[in-house]
Amino acid sequence: MEKQEVTKILAESLRGLTVKLDILYALTRMDVYEYLCELDALRHLLYGLLDVPPWESDEEIVDDYLQGKIDYDEMLSRIAEAQKAFDPNTYAKYVKAVSDNE
Predict the structure, then answer these.
(1) Half-sphere exposure in the Cβ direction for 45 (13 Å, CA)
(2) What is the pTM of this model?
(3) Is residue 38 within 8 Å of residue 32, measured between CB atoms?
């Protein structure tokens, strides 16, 4: 791919993203950083409401649903499996090891 093609693709992508962000700002009156912070906070609230185990891979189950990769029932099924497999002692050891390395 030539530089001109890459440049055009990048320019068009950035233009599309800029237009979407401008529309989002017009609707919410929140800048992108604020919006992303709110979105992240709501995601973590959803993890808690669904009682998702704290492993990042388990939180990705919810993310897969939010991104449209799986449906709601599949998400609930995967979360139930993750809850059954969750070992609090192993997680506590992991948290301790991480905090010891900081």
Answers:
(1) 6
(2) 0.70
(3) no
> CA 99 from chain center: how many Å?
24
Helix axes 72-85, 56-66, angle to 10 degrees: 170
- Show the tokens assigned to 56: 């990042």
CA dist 63 to 43, 44, 57, Å? 8, 10, 10
The 8-class DSSP code of residue 54 comes to: S
- What would the pLDDT profile of 58-74 be if each residue is shown by its tens digit? 999 999 999 999 999 99
φ/ψ of residue 67, rounded to 5 = -90, 0
pLDDT at 72: 96
Q: What separation in angstroms does the CA of 6 have from each of 10, 12, 16, 20?
A: 6, 10, 15, 21
